[in-house]
Each structure stands twice: as C-alpha cells, then as structure tokens.
Amino acid sequence: MCKKNKTKQKKIIIITKRTTKPMNTQENSCRIAILHTSNMSQEAVNGVPCRGKVLTLDTMNPNVKRVEYAVRGPIVQRAVQIEKELREGAKKPFTEVIKANIGDAHAMGQKPVTFLRQVLALCSYPELLEDNKFPEDAKKRARRILGACGGQSIGAYSASQGIECVRQDVARYIEKRDGGIPSNPDNIYLSTGASDAIVTMLKLLVCGEGRGRTGVMISIPQYPLYSAALADLGAVQINYYLDEDKCWSLDIKELRRAVTEARQHCNPRVLCIINPGNPTGQVQSRQCIEDVIRFAKEEHLFLMADEVYQDNVYAEGCAFHSFKKVLFEMGPEYSSTVEMASFHSTSKCYMGECGFRGGYMEVINLDPEVKAQLIKLVSVRLCPPVPGQALLDLVVNPPQPDEPSHTTFMKERTAVLAALAEKARLTEQVFNTVPGITCNPVQGAMYTFPRITLPQKAIDKAKEAGQVPDMFYCMRLLEEEGICLVPGSGFGQREGTFHFRMTILPPTEKLKIVLQKIRDFHQRFTQEFS
Amino acid sequence: KWSERKVTIFTPMSDQQETGPTMRRLSQLESVVLWNRARQIKRELKQGVKKPYREVIDISWGDPQGGGIKPLSFVRQVLAACHYPQLLNSDKLPEDVRQRAERLLKECAGRSTGSYTATQGIPYIVKGISEFITRRDGGVPSFPNNIYISSGSQWSLQVPTSLILIISSFFFTGVLTPVPCYDKVNMSIRELGGVTIPYYLHEDQGWELQIEELNRALESAKGVCNPVALYVMNPGNPTGSLPQRRSSFSWLMSEFVSYKKVLAEMGPPISETVELASFHSASKGLIGECGLRGGYVELVNVDPAVMEYIYKLFSTDSCASVPGQIALNLMTHPPQPGDPSYSLYNEVIMTITQLMRVFEVLNSVPGFSCQPVEGGGFAFPRLHLPLNAIHKAKEAGMQPDEFYCVRLLEESGLLVNPGWNFEQKEGTSHFRMNIMIKEETLEGVLRRLVSFHTKFMKEFS
C-alpha cells in the first residue's frame, strides 16, 4: 500500500555534487545558467510565498531524533565555547580547559611514535626516500606500501576492502597474536576507524519489523557509538548490566536475563562485547570469554568483539585474550559455527593515531552470500583513507629486533604503555580517597568511570534545571575548574546511580592536578548541596 | 535468500515489495564478472603469462594518480612535514611549504595530525573552505557553520540523505536521480532505504537536463513514492556535461557555475527557501587526492533545528581523516603568485587538446558516438552494437556493454566501466572511461580501443 502524495506545492531539496572544474583554471566572469522549474517560478510570479521547508523536525527521519553521542555532546560544545571565551580574554578561575572527555592521546600531549611518522612522511612525499636521514627499515616499508598502491601513490583509491598486502599483513599479525590460529586475508576488511566497520556490520544485521525487529545486546555502561547506531538503524537496544560491585564484570546470568526478556518484544540476534571495556576498563578473563561464546552459540547470536584497546592492559593478573583465539581453542563445535566479527583500530593502544582513521575488522564464519553484500556495502564509500591503511600496516608489521629502528620503537612503545599503567593506578588511588567517589581499578583501556554520590538537594536542583544529575555535576565542574568530563548518563548506568567518565591521558603531572581539583570540587559540591 | 543456519541476513526494505520499472533495487549486482576477471588477469601477467599486452590499463575509476598522474609536490611536502615535523628543522623544503605546515600544525591538538579534530573539521580549514566558496561564487556568502568535512564526499552525502529518507512500511521516500548517474549515489540512496526516481538526461543534446523530463519523472512517482529530493551532478558523472547554457558560445569556453551562486542570484523568496546541499571533494580537480579521502558538504537554508541533528550524526563518526582535511586546505588555498611553489602547482593535469582528441577519435569510428566532454574527467561514449553482439551477450548472461567491456579487457587489457552500472536509457549501451590520465597513456588507450573496436564490430557484423 503506498501513500498518495497530496501536497500541492512541490518543494524539493536540491542535492548537487560537483567534481572537477573544466580545464580552464582561471576564474573568468561567469555566465549564469538560469534554472527554471516551471512550478517554482509560477509560484513566485503568482506571489504565493514559498513557505515551509521540506526538511523539518517533523518530516525528518524519526530514528535520528534518538541519536545521541555524549562524547561529543553538549558538555563538549560548552567546553569549546569556554575555550573561545578564554582566547578572547574572558576572566575565569582557570587558564585552560582540560578536555578529559575523549580518548585522544596526542591531544593530551602524547608524542607520536617516531617510526610510524617517518614511514608516513616517506609515503606522503616519496622524494624523501633519497634522504639519508631516514632509516633503511622505514624506507623498506614505505616502498612496499607504495608498490601496492595504484600509480605508486597513497593518493590513489585502493580496493574497497583495503590494500591487499596490508590485509595479508593484518592476517599474519592476527595469526602471530593468536598462537598460530589461521587468519584468511579475505576475511579482513580495512575501515575508516573501527567505528566504520562496527556500523557496517550493524547495517547488515539489523532487519525485520515489529516483534521480529533485530535486537542488539550491548553492555551498560557502553561506548555510545553503539546506542547511536542502533537508534539510527531503528534496531532494538537490549541492555545487559555489568556488575559494578564486582569490578564491572560480565555475568552470564545477566546476559541470559536480558535476552530472555528481550525475546518477548524483538528478535535478539547480536551480542556486542567491548574488551577491554569502554568506559569501564574491565579486562575479561579467559573463562568469561569462553562462557560468552558458549552463551552466543546457545542463544544463536552474532558476536561483535570490539577489541580496540587490546594493548592497553595494566592490572596485575589481567591479560588480553582475543575472542577469536578462545573461540578456536574451544574446538570445531564452536569455531566452525559461531559467527563473529572482531574490531581493531589505530586510534588507541600505544599509537593513539586517531586522526588517521585506521582500523579493520575480521569476520569469522560469515555466510559467503552475505560477504558479497558486505563488499558492496563497503564500496559505497569507495575506500578507507589510504594513510590510515598504511599506518595500520606499520602497526601489524613493526620493526623487528634485527632492524635499525627497533630499539627506539620499543623504547617509545614501552614508555607510553608504562605511563598509562601508572596513571591508571594513580587515578584509582586518588579517587578512592574522596568521600563520595568510589572507583574500580582501571584494568585496561584509557578511562576511569567512578561512581559519585550526589546529595539529594543536588539531584533536585538538577531536575529543576531540566538536567540529568550527573550532567548538572559535570557542567558545574567545567564552569568552575575548566575540566571537561562526560557524565555517566551518556554511557548508561543503573537507575539511581551516577558516574562520570574521565580519560587517564593527561601527562602525569597535569593528571595529578586534575585529580586534586576534582577531589576539591566534589567536596565543595557535596557541602553546597548538603 | 534467507539462510536458515546463519544468523546474518541482509534485506533492505525495498526488497520486501515488488518494484515497477521506475524503481531499482540494491540487490541488483554490479558487473562482478569484469572486476574478478581484471584481478585474475593482473595476477596472470605478474606470473608471466603471455598476453597481447604487458599490463592492464585501469581507467574504470576516476583516479588520476591511479592513472599515473603525479601528485602536486606542494601538497605532498606539506603533508610529509605535518606528519613528521622534524622535516621543518632543515630548509630542504621550500619556505611556503614550511610556513603552511607550521600553520596547520598549530591548528592540530597537541600539534599532531594524529589527534581527533572538531566534528565539522579543523575550524581553520573549515573557514578556509567557506572563503573558497565565497570567492568562487563571486561574493555570495558562505558560513563555516554550514560546512562539514568528511572522509570522502560520499559520507557527507549519506548524512543529509539519511535525514530526509524515512523508512516506513507504508511508503517509500524517493530521490530524483539522473540517468546515467554515478553508481555510488544510487547505492547510497537505496542502502539508506530510499528509492531512486530516474530522470533521463537527453543524450543527443549533450546530455541535457530538460525540465519537462524532470516533471515527467515527478509525475511518474505519484502514488508510488514520496519524492523529497533532487540530485544533480555538475559537471556530470559519467556524462561530463554542464547544465544548459542560453547562449551560442562554443562548448570549449564553458565555465563552471555553482547551483548555490545561481540560487543566490535568483533572489528571494527562492534564494531563502530552497534547501540545498552542495558537495565537493579533494579527489578530483587539480589536486586529485582520492586516497586521502577529503570531502565536504555545504548546507544552505536548512532548518536550524535539523542542523543540530546533522551535527549529531556526523559526530558519531568522530571526525574526518586529518590528511584528507589538510588536502582540502591545500586545494582551497593553493600557493599564490610569488610563492616558491606557485609555478609547479599550476601545471594543469589535463589539456584541452586531450579532451578534443578523445572527442575526435570516438566520433570518427563507426559504432561509437560521444557527446562533448565539458568537464568531469570522464568520457561516456555510446556503443552502437550489432544485433549479433547483443544476442551473444544475452547468451552469456551479460548486458551488451558489459559483454563488450569483458572482451575489451581480455583482448586489449583496457579496463573501463560498463554503462549498465550507471543506468542508461533502455536499449542503449555505453561505457565510462577516465580521461584524467597522462597524455602518452591516453594515446595508448585510444590506440588499443580503436583497434579492438574495429575487430569486434567486424566479428559481429
């Protein structure tokens, strides 16, 4: 059944795309190409005003209304505004805004790894291959990458799935990481950051209507890309709660509760796990991963394993276990049936190269017909940024012990990860000295997600102001101390609890000051609203 | 198509309903045969298998650097210096390169191209784009708040499109798109749950966009879907045509005029009400940096409340690739006369002679006809295939132009893009070839093409 279009005045949006200018690069006087649409000019001529837009909140795709992405949300927009005010000379109790809202290591002063940038410079401007200031192993990798690019240039499109030799290197890296378990380059899809690949997979998975609509299980708290994507796609979000009292651990009983309840109103088909976790930082034990895989098989769920923080593991006794490795070690009953996609990125770990938008996913046991559709889907955006692909190649193919850059590379890598581990420990320690703040150990990733106790008066004040209580708290912190955090409501939390997410990325000395300021603020705030 | 065992199922909305001849479905597969064969042949050549040619010339994509054209030194020097600022310590790089790199690094958080940027793009670069647009449009104002940089213009197209397309069980939302049209556009619209309403460009009149045809297309949508948007491409892809002119100037003197400029010059109320999204990219034009993925959209007259949601959608993808953003800045603000890098920058990628050569050759061979290429970097010649060839194609389960292109690849090593991928008037055949390539390469391409075509036409006459 199709709806008849009843509108009399035809208003349309014009979407135009321009590609090249003709060869004449001079800007001469332009002749005007007059476009007339007979309807429109008549309306103007007849004096009937063209009122009313085609695209309004009412006519907009309603799914979009539910999209929120707290990491870049209103508090960040206010922080940017305050920075502008500071630049214009406004007097404030602080001289800079510390943006501890986003997992951006370089923005917080972390230095890029020398080897990575040398190769990227060589790939960008190959004439530098003649410069003897660049080490031989950097040049070798640059030549190899350029050789795999169209026209020997990173400015050429690559295949939509990504440069073949990079995918091969990624597969080899995965095999090495997972103790020899084979990885097929055809199952590797390079992407524009991991987010791109995550959304692509969700696009494939979400379908159906009404009670048959796809349900996707995500952790609470979660990284809000997932909730945003699910809202945009009109999928059903199925929340499973991590256990804050047990260090944010994942309990299979809770997974089962969530999926059973969800079956009453949707068709649960996907289970998303972030390991190490964001915002919580918990690192899954091997046993837990096995239990999750078993659960996914029993409940017939597609597993999405977001593993972008796999190098960021700090706590004693914790280790990263890839879902794929565990899956294959569970034997063919699981490894040949459970469908899975694992995601990785160049934005985190020791590299922190967010701006390059490098990433990949590995798909396991995907139906070949679906893979054909996947190729088509990724081809719509042509290809992922080639500099990001080149960077990824270096991450999976770093300097070896017998190569000139190895020593410096290892030194830099170790220093970054050691600093993060120290900051993780420091953060947990300081926050736990503050009455009203409890902080689980930061086992991995780049964030802390402490729980804050807010006085009832503050909660009431927030409600008056039409704000969620932890947003109210964080906004006050921003205005008074110039520290930008993201309220826990942006990630999801148990009803009646409040949190914030802070990155552990500022340099150690600055971080100490930030922790101190938050401690002082919290005490003031609690006092004010007691 | 529904797999019982597997969890994964891909079913776009439009598959659930029978569609008439004016609609196309995403499930229509592209010419997979051709690409697979190309990949295979490239491998065989590497392994030393003997063929009538030494390499495959791939002119199926709009990729100047992939086609052997060298990138601009200024662009690459600035990028290298931004990624590896130690290069700024010597004076090996020209002064203007070092200055620009310094300026850009100042705008990057932590002085690193590895940091995330603001959602809309680095403000300095976004402002530069608005200045570029204003300059280009003879002073029509452009506001940085209305500009979003993205990793390639396709993503910046998808965001506003996803806002206007409503996925409903009761009706389709439609976008008028040209025939022929850049295939990724149609795919984007269908992927987002919309349908495309084709309006046919008039081939015999230089691929003219005729208003009567737009009206016919709009009429045809009545009762079938809810049309909400019109997509135009200027210059066209694959056709290379510019919008109609109202003078007798020869086509060689054609100039690019933006839709936004014309909209502004039409004055109120139209200039204040028609909602417009214009897209541009660092992948084409003088700079040709396809792999860096830099594109932008400028939104005009869009409801401010809706703009907030545009922001939210873009923000979920964090930000555009920083190398792509830098490429855009170098495109909007190239070296100026007097700068050390100025003379190198102005070497034109493609000469008028090249365009004329293509036009001449393609129109001199029986079985080919080609409209003037006024811009856009592609030629889209029409094939007048003998009936025997069309029958042979049917037997092989291929579209006629696809069949031609596969044979062209096999026998001459030329890879072009069959017209079927871009949609075309029923019963016609075309192919698209990239002509943003080196002059010597173009000669080789034309030679191979004519030689093959003559043999092919003879075989099937």
How is this structure best summarized?
The complex is a heterodimer of chains A (530) and B (461). Chain A is of the alpha/beta class and 530 residues long.
Question: What report would you give on this structure?
Answer:
Chain A: Pathway: Amino-acid degradation; L-alanine degradation via transaminase pathway; pyruvate from L-alanine: step 1/1. Chain A: Homodimer. Chain A: It is an enzyme of class 2 (transferase). The complex is a heterodimer of chains A (530) and B (461). Chain A is of the alpha/beta class. Chain A folds into two domains: 66-109 and 408-529, Aspartate Aminotransferase, domain 1 (Alpha-Beta Complex); 158-396, Type I PLP-dependent aspartate aminotransferase-like (Major domain) (Aspartate Aminotransferase, domain 2, 3-Layer(aba) Sandwich). Chain A is built from 17 helices and 15 strands. Chain A has helices at 38-45, 74-87, 114-124, 136-147, 164-177, 193-205, 225-233, 252-262, 286-298, 323-329, 332-335, 368-379, 386-396, 406-431, 456-464, 469-481, 508-528, and strands at residues 13-17, 98-99, 188-192, 214-220, 236-241, 267-274, 302-306, 340-345, 358-364, 437-438, 447-448, 451-452, 483-484, 486-487, 500-503. In chain A, helix 7 links the parallel strand 4 (214-220) and strand 5 (236-241). In chain A, helix 14 (406-431) runs parallel beside helix 17 and helix 15 packs across helix 16. Chain A is globular. Chain A starts with 12 loop residues before the first strand and ends with a helix. Chain B is α/β, with parallel strands linked by helices and 461 residues long. Chain B folds into two domains: 2-68 and 352-460, Alpha-Beta Complex (Aspartate Aminotransferase, domain 1); 113-332, Aspartate Aminotransferase, domain 2, CATH 3.40.640. In chain B, helix 4 runs parallel beside helix 11, helix 5 packs across helix 6 and helix 13 runs parallel beside helix 16. The longest helix of chain B has 21 residues, at 439-459. The two termini of chain B are 41 Å apart. At the A-B interface, strand 1, helix 1, helix 3, helix 6 and helix 7 of A face helix 2, helix 5, strand 3, helix 6 and helix 7 of B.
